[in-house]
Amino acid sequence: MMSNNIILIGYRGTGKSAVGQYISNKFNKTLISTDELIVDEVGPIPEFIDKNNWNKFREVEHRIISNIELKNGIIDCGGGVIETPENHEPLKKLGQIFWLTATADTIIERIKSSTNRPALSGNDFLSEIPEILKRRTPLYKKFSDYEIKTDDRSISHIASEIIDKFSK
Q1: Shortest CA distance to 33 belongs to which of 73, 89, 78, 80?
Q2: Quick check: 61 and 78 in contact, CB under 8 A?
Q3: How many other CB atoms are found less than 10 A from the CB of residue 43?
Q4: CB 107 within 8 Å of CB 12
Q5: Is residue 165 within 8 Å of 98, Cβ to Cβ?
Q6: Strands 95-101 and 5-9
Q7: pLDDT confidence of 116, banded at 50, 70, 90?
Q8: Which single residue of 40, 76, 115, 126 could bond 20 by disulfide (Cβ 3.0 to 4.6 Å)?
Q9: How far is CA 21 from the centre of its chain?
Q10: Cβ–Cβ < 8 Å for 91, 107
């Protein structure tokens, strides 16, 4: 059964959480953050990954996504959700998928002072951005229904574009 949710995907720092919160508040929709659900279950993500590994994290993420039951809400997904092919079908069933994009420079500017972002490769989380973006971009493109550029745009403009496309 198809649910009528707005699903936000994209790299860290592309605005998924801020845009999801804005749409949630403006249209009184329930907002679910897959990362928050994971934290509720396993504790802080960087610590979980240190103790386990990224594969174990992806397993937890997949299980959580597969169990989401939401109608007419917003789902803010972690940046790497598209790296697990098994996530594609459950998310497609949950609604329309909006890929929020930004250049590497924009992303670095937005997340450089963040302290809770574990590195995805062996590098620090800022220097790895171009490499990870290059790897993930074809997956985001293939997986999404819409691409929404977020560089130099306000949260309200991004949200308006999503709502406009979603209502069609």
Answers
A1: 78
A2: yes
A3: 11
A4: yes
A5: yes
A6: parallel
A7: low
A8: 76
A9: 13
A10: no
Domain coverage including residue 70: 5-166
**What secondary structure does DSSP assign to 54-120, as a single string?**
HHHHHHHHHHHHHT---SS-EEE--TTGGGSGGGHHHHHHHEEEEEEE--HHHHHHHHTT-SS---S
Nearest CA-CA partner of 165 in 102, 101, 107, 95: 95
Q: State how far the Cα of 87 lies from the Cα of 12, in Å rounded to an integer.
A: 18
For residue range 1-14, list pLDDT tens digits in order: 356 899 999 998 99
Domain count, the chain: 1
d(CA 60, CA 111) in angstroms, rounded, equals 24
10 Å Cβ neighbour count for 34?
Answer: 23
Instruction: Classify residue 152 as exposed, middle or buried by CB count within 10 Å of its CB (0-12, 13-18, 19+).
Output: exposed
Distance CA 151, CA 48 (A): 31
Give the pLDDT of residue 78: 92
Q: How many CB atoms sit inside 10 A of residue 76's CB?
A: 24
* CB-CB contact of 99 with 141 (8 Å): yes
What are the respective helix, strand and coil percentages of the chain, to the nearest 5?
A: 55, 15, 35
Tell me the percentage of the chain whose pLDDT exceeds 90. Answer: 73
